[in-house]
Design goal:
By secondary structure, this protein is mainly α. It is 67% helix and 0% strand.
Length: 348
Amino acid sequence: MKENPLSFQLKLNPDDFLPASEEEKESLVVMRESVSFWKDGMRRLVKNKVAMASLAIIIIIMIFSFIVPAFYPYSYKTQIKGANNLAPMQYSAAEQEAIAAGEKVFPHIFGTDKMGRDYAIRVMLGSRVSLLVGLVATAIVLLIGATYGSIAAFAGGWVDLVMMRLVDIIYTIPDILLIVLLSFALEDPLEKLAALPGFAWVGIVGKNLISIFIVFALLYWVGMARMVRSQILMLKESEYVTAARALGAKSGRIIKKHLLTNCIGTLIVTTTLQIPSAIFTESFLSFLGMGVAVPMPSLGSLASEAINGINTYPYLLFIPAAVISLIILSFNLLGDGLRDAFDPKLKD
C-alpha cells in the first residue's frame, strides 16, 4: 500500500517508546555540580591571581610583624652604643671589633636610627601596631555599624528615621578635632588607670591610641551602618523572613540568624576594605604625633621621626612609607578580589 504524501498522519516507531537505559539517562544529565556559597566564592577568589598575591603579601607582613620579633636579637627600645645612624647592613666600631675577635654579630638589616636602635625591629613593631589598630578598629566598626544598621532597617518607620538622622549628624563631626579633645580629656583618667594592677598596658598603648579607638567607636561606624541598612531593607521582605515571623521567631533572632547571615558576603568585603582605611588613619595621626606612646613605634611615627633627615638618611623614611603603602595596597586589592568573588551581582 502506497503512502499518501499529503497525509498528516504521524508515523510512529514502537522502539521510540521503549524505556531509556541507565547509560542513556546518564548521558542526558548535564547538570552543574552543586556547590555552597562559600565554596563557590573561594573558587572564584583562588582564580584571582592579584587577590591571592595580595593575601600572600599580607601573610608575609603578619609573620614579619608578629612572629619574627620573638626571635630577633635586638629590642625596639635598646640603644646600642656607638651605633647611631648606621646604614643598612652596617656595623658599629665595637661590633666590627667583636666580629674581628671571632664573635657572631647579627647585622642591622635596615640600619639604625639616630638613637642607635635597630631599625628593622622598630619597623616590625610599627607594622604590628598598625595592623592591630586596623584590625581592632575595624572589628569595632563592624560590631557597632552592623548592629545599628540592622536594627534601624528592621524596625523601619519613625525608628529608622530617627536613627538615620542621628547618623547624618555624626557625619558632620570632625574626627581629628575629637581625637585631640579626647587626648586631653583622657590624660588624667588614663594615668590613674595605668597605675592600677593589671592595667600597665594602658601606659604602654598611650592615651592617643585609646582616643583613636574611641573615635572609631563613636564616628567611623556610620558608613557600615548605612551599608547594612540598605542590605536589610532588601532582605526583610523575603519569604523566609515572613516564615520565621509566622513561626514566632523574635526580632533579634531574625536579624542575627536570617538577615545578617544572608548579607555576610557584603559584610566581609566591606570589612576588608575598612582595614586599610583604619591603618591609614592611624599612620596619619601618628605622623602628626597623636599616635602610640614613645618609645613604642608605629609606621606613622617612624616616618615622622625620619622626615627631618630625609636628605641625609632617606632610607629611614622610605622603608616605613613603603611598608604602609604595601599594606594598604594589599588590603585594597584583596578587598576587590573578595567583592568579585562573593558579590552575587558580579557572577558570570
